[in-house]
Amino acid sequence: MTTGQLNPSDLVGVSFWIISAAMVAATFFFWVERDRAVGKWKTSLTVAAMVTGIAAIHYFYMRDVWVTTGESPVVFRYVDWLLTVPLQIIEFYLILAAIAVVSASLFWRLLSASVIMLIAGYLGEIGSMNVWLAFIIGMLAWIYIIYEIFAGEASKISASEGTPASQKAFNALRIIVTVGWAIYPIGYVIGYVGAGSADSLNLIYNLADFVNKIAFGVVIWAAATSESK
């Protein structure tokens, strides 16, 4: 692990390389496909490309840290999440803002919850906060986001004023935020609370990023191109 070269038997290292390439490919795809979208959907696809583009940059650094040192790239990972997760929250707002007048307070509530969730996780992972306390705070923030998109103002706006394309995208995105994002706390618990290791932690986190960031963008792309037809 100290040679700086990828060991083919290192599954975690291989996952870093695969995902970094996938993020680059997804970024290129979403950006090119903007031409097929109309109106405000172009902005949504731009944000999707930004999410995977930012992730690609950080995965280049994270894979180097892992391959060279064998240590978890905690700082790079959380810098990535602090940029990309709020952008994914912005996607919800953009979808709703395209079909209705949406209060700014809704955006700030969702954004604040996402930031609290991430900061709590980071403090727990670096040892600045009790692992369990950080986990509970992060989970409460995530549960609030789920409540807002399933039963709160965001859900009501989508149900009452959404177009077929926007409702399809909104419903798919909230499934990703519920089911896909659940992979992260599983990795956190296995890596820091249970009898896990840096290998299992990073493999699960990498899988979650692959599913959530790229799938998130694909949902936006599908809605954007379907409405442009």
Could you walk me through the main structural features you see in this protein, from its secondary elements to its overall organization?
It is built from 9 helices and no strands. Helix content is 81%, strand content 0%. α1 (11-33) runs parallel beside α9. The chain has one domain (11-227): Rhopdopsin 7-helix transmembrane proteins (Up-down Bundle), CATH 1.20.1070. The N and C termini lie far apart (50 Å). It has 229 residues and is mostly helical. It is globular, with a radius of gyration of 18 Å.
Key traits:
globular, 229 residues, Rhopdopsin 7-helix transmembrane proteins, mainly alpha
Q: What helical percentage do the residues reach?
A: over 70%
The geometry reads as globular
How many β-strands, per DSSP? Answer: 0
Looking at this structure, what is the CATH superfamily?
Answer: Rhodopsin 7-helix transmembrane proteins
Computed Rg = 18 Å
Return the structural class: mainly alpha
CATH C-level class: Mainly Alpha
Low-pLDDT segments, ≥5 res? none
Total helical elements? 9
> In percent, how much strand structure appears in the residues?
under 5%
CATH architecture name: Up-down Bundle
Q: How would a textbook summarize the main sheet? A: none
Distance between the termini: 50 Å
